[in-house]
Amino acid sequence: xxxxxxxxxxxxxxxxxxxxxxxxxxxxxxxxxxxxxxxxxxxxxxxxxxxxxxxxxxxxxxxxxxxxxxxxxxxxxxxxxxxxxxxxxxxxxxxxxxxxxxxxxxxxxxxxxxxxxxxxxxxxxxxxxxxxxxxxxxxxxxxxxxxxxxxxxxxxxxxxxxxxxxxxxxxxxxxxxxxxxxxxxxxxxxxxxxxxxxxxxxxxxx
Length: 206
Hints:
- This protein has one domain.
- By secondary structure, the protein is mainly α.
- The chain has a two-stranded antiparallel ribbon with strand order 1-2.
- It is built from 11 helices and 2 strands, in the order H-H-H-H-H-H-H-H-H-E-H-H-E.
């Protein structure tokens, strides 16, 4: 229990570092969140408004801040041990909550897509959750195309959460992703991102 609480705290604090802001300062450019329309200090805006180097550095660090706490906590554990460790749900989701509600930025953070992938990649070699999330992002982007990014992200997280439970992925991992989904959905609804009409189309129809 104590070990889990330590990793939850470390994961939250790790997530609370918003690297889009950090690298904006290091590269002496205007804060990417201030320049963007949605005010999101995330990886996409780091690339769009900060350029290749700011974006790449932000992406790598956003992934790492999710990967490292989860990876160190789960290292060497079997699937059976993960299934019996309910505190894992909070360890997995802590970096994401830190990113969305960062202690160091008055609890005003990003949407957390890159961090989500980091949290799931930290479960390696248990890769089903990360692969499932990647599959749905690709599927709803390239096959059954959901517009806009706002709606595509919502649908992707919902289907990923449902699929993890249907596949019988370790319950703490599935619950952890459900917590992540709830936080991301909340952040999306609170975002200043422009809400265009929800559209679904097949790739070969365009």
